[in-house]
Amino acid sequence: MDEFLNLPTTQEAIQNHELPIGLEFEMVQSIAISFNQLKSLIYLSDSAESLENQTHHLLNTSLCFGKKLRVMLVDPLEEYRSYSEKVSTYISSKKEISEIAQQLIFEVNRRLEGDLYSDWLIFMPNIKVIVEHGLSEKDLDFLFKNGLRVGLHFVIGGEYSYIGNNIHEVPKYLKSNAQWVMLGMRLMDQMFLDKPYNNREARLELDEVYLHDRKQAVKLKITKNN
Questions:
Q1: Per the CB 3.0–4.6 Å rule, which of 19, 146, 160, 178 could disulfide with 46?
Q2: Under CATH, which architecture does the 2-221 domain have?
Q3: Cβ-Cβ contacts under 8 Å for 163 (sequence gap 6 or more)
C-alpha cells in the first residue's frame, strides 16, 4: 500500500482531491476519480477473496486524505471492524443500519437547506445486508441524485451474484445508475456493462481489476491485502 500511495501520480491525485483507484498497466500511472465528479462507485467480484481485497484497498486509499475527507463505514456484519478507530464514523448495530438511509437523507436535506458542503465518503462494503435492513431503491435514487451537491460520495460493494444477477429493485438500480464500476473479474463473465469480445480473456489476479465508466473499461493493478 505504501508503495502505491507514494507514487508521484498517486500523490498528485491526492493533492488534487482525487480518489486514486489503481495503476494503469501500460503507462504505470495512477488512475483517479475527482471528488468533484464522484457520485457513486460500485465494486464487485465473483470471488469473495477479490471482493475483500478491493474493500481493503479502497478503504486504505480513502484514509490517506486525513482531515480533508471523512469516511463513514457502514459494516453490518462487522467484517471490517479493524477500521472502526480509523474512519470518522463506524456503523454496525442493527438499529443504526436500519436507520442509515433516513439518517443520510436527513443529512442531505439539512445540507441543501443550509447550503452546507463537506466531503464524506459513504462506504457500504456489503450492500445486500444493508438492503435486508431496509435500504430501498427510492432511498438510493435520492442519495445518488443529491449527494454530490453537498459532498456525499458513495462507494458500494457486493458479490456479483447479488448485484449482477439479481432482479431485486436495488441491484437493478445499481446496475443501471452507478456512475463507476470496479470489477474484480473478467469482463466477459458479467452481463450488464459494455465489453469487447475476447474469448481469450485471462482470469484476473487478486490485485487486478477493471474500472468501467459505463463507456469503456481500463485494467488496473491495485494493492494486495496481507
A1: 160
A2: 3-Layer(aba) Sandwich (3.40)
A3: 42, 44, 127, 171, 174, 175
